[in-house]
Amino acid sequence: MHFIAMLGFTIPGEPIRYNVPITIGSLLISVAVVTVGSFIVGFGNGGWLRLIAGGTVIGIGVAAMHYMGMAAMSMPGSMSYRLPLVALSVVIAIVAGTVALWIGTWVRSIAATFGAAIVMGIAVTGMHYTGMAALQVKGGLMPTMGVNGVAAASGVSGATAATFLIPLLLVISLATFLLTLSISMTPSEDEIRADAEMLRRLNYLEQRGTPNPEG
User: Which long-range contacts (CB under 8 A, 24 or more apart) does 169-177 make?
Assistant: First the structure.
C-alpha cells in the first residue's frame, strides 16, 4: 500500500528518485517486525499483555517502514516533518496492529474476515496519509543528495518509479499470490485432526482384524 501510494506523490515540475537499498530495507523491516509481532501473540496464551505487546511491535515496525521509505526519496529541496502528526501516525499504526492481532484471534467466518480486512485497510491507509500530511518540502537541493547518471542534470540521484517501484510491486504481487495459493492448499487444523482420527481408527481396525499367533 505504501509503495503504490508513493507512486501518486509528485512535486509539479520536480523529479523524484528512490534509493534502492533503503527502499528494499524498509520492505524487509516491515516483514520482519510483523512476523515478530505475530509470533508474540500466536505462541502465547492469548492474554491482553501479549496482544498489546505484539500490536505495539507491529505498529512501530509499520511506522518505521513508512518513514524509512520516505527517507529513500531524493528530490530537489529538503524534507522535514511536523512532529505532532508524526506521533499521531505512529499511534494509528500501533492501534491498527493491535486491532489486527485481536481480530485474528477470534475471526472465523468469511463475512467477519472481510469486515476485518476493511477495518485494517482504512487504518493502514490512515497511518500512511497522516504521515504524508506531516511532510514538509522546502526549496533547494537536499544536503545529502548526490549527482550521478541520468539524474545529474536535476541534481537528483536514485531510480525512478518506472524502473524500480513498478517492477518491485509486480514481484511482490506475484510472491503474495503464490504464498496465498500455498496457504489456501494447506490443510486446516480441523482437517488435520480429522485425518489423524481416521488414521487412528484404521489402525484400531487393523489391530482387531489381526489374528493372535498365540491363540
Answer: 169/3, 169/4, 172/27
